[in-house]
Design a protein that fits this description.
Layout lengths: L6 H32 L21 H21 L3 H6 L6 H22 L6 E4 L3 H25 L1 H4 L2 H8 L21 H11 L3 E3 H29 L1 H9 L2
Antiparallel strand pairs: 1-2
Helix pairs in contact: 1-4, 1-7, 2-4, 2-9, 4-7, 5-8, 8-9
């Protein structure tokens, strides 16, 4: 019998468990986020978490300050942990296959904190009355999340979530090299996942002040993140990235 403490058995198994648990948590948290934004009132009786315009304990300026802090936490986690200098100085202390998985776990925590601690500001900004317009808004909402998922698939979802890196480590194989992604949705969109997120947060038939604050905050994050991401891609891939980017202007 092989002991569970044996390094050749336990370390790869624990590494894979660490990676796959991040994936499972990611699906759960993002489903919660979609429900959070869709705000289905018929779910309020049994849904255990806040939704974007219902719940919370604060109001007015205090609610806005908490919400801004949560959006900033989300943006900083996603942006700072993705920067090369942070990877080298902080995350770089981890074994390479654990870097992306750790990013996924931290992203899950940041998004869950935003959902769980959100303080709604229910004043209406707009409320679409037309049935056709409401259905069109919900269609755009759904399209946004489909684009986000297909963007992640186009990027290589196993790479994005750290599964491929961890599987290579568990099987004693070299770490996969990072490649410029130009297939699927990236043939038409430079940043499909950002496009999906923006549609998801803005497309709603009833926009409250709190929801608008969230949408504006995430839009600001996307605009800043795109700038730094494109700079990192230029430095890493040089002319290949510039040629691909110029075609999609």
């Amino acid at each position: 019998m092989v002991s569970i403490a044996s390094p050749c058995v336990s370390r790869p198994a624990l590494g894979l468990a660490y990676a796959w648990s991040g994936v499972a948590a990611m699906w759960a948290v993002w489903i919660c986020f979609v429900v959070f934004l869709a705000a289905p009132r018929q779910w309020l009786a049994f849904w255990p978490l806040p939704i974007v315009d219902h719940g919370g304990t604060l109001s007015g300026p205090f609610a806005a300050l908490v919400d801004l802090g949560l959006v900033m936490l989300f943006g900083l986690q996603h942006s700072v942990m993705a920067r090369p200098w942070f990877k080298e100085r902080i995350v770089g202390r981890l074994p390479p296959p654990f870097e992306r998985c750790t990013y996924v776990h931290m992203a899950n925590l940041a998004l869950f904190a935003l959902i769980a601690l959100w303080q709604p500001i229910p004043s209406e900004v707009w409320n679409v009355g037309s049935v056709f317009a409401r259905e069109a808004m919900w269609a755009l909402f759904a399209i946004g999340w489909i684009i986000l998922f297909l963007g992640a698939w186009s990027f290589g979802i196993r790479d994005l979530l750290g599964i491929r890196q961890m599987q290579a480590w568990a099987h004693g194989e070299p770490q996969p090299r990072r490649q410029l992604k130009t297939g699927w949705l990236y043939r038409w969109l430079r940043h499909p996942m950002y496009v999906g997120v923006l549609l998801g947060v803005w497309a709603t038939p009833r926009m409250t002040l709190g929801h608008a604050l969230l949408a504006l905050g995430l839009t600001g994050y996307v605009l800043i993140a795109m700038r730094y991401e494109e700079r990192d891609l230029r430095q890493r891939f040089g002319r290949a990235y510039m040629q691909w980017r110029d075609v999609r202007r």
